[in-house]
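Here's a chain:
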Amino acid sequence: MDIRKYSVEPTSKLHLRDANDELMYTDEGKPVAVNLYGPGSKQYARAQAAQNNRLLDKLKRKGKSDQTAEQRAAESSEFLADCTESFENLEYDNLAGRELFMAVYADVSIGFVADQVAKYISDWSNFTKR
């Protein structure tokens, strides 16, 4: 048996939920979603390597791993942005691309978005071939 028949897709779409756990839609009824690179993709592997390198650099500079809540949020936002291919039907201050991703993930008032994305991309089953 060729084990590759169990390989996963590199990307998957997450239909976002609001803070009340309701699916989010635009006023026109379009789903608000994010397309993500999963754990079986090269982009995810690069994002994880970059995250690990940032941690190692910090340890080398300071000799300790303590970090503030703001630093932790910034690092998490970097990782999630690196794992994001695109948003669908989502706007934030006319930003686009990586700037948009970073702004959304760093905004604590909509922290439920970053929480959903982090949980989603950590589950291989969300990227199985359908």
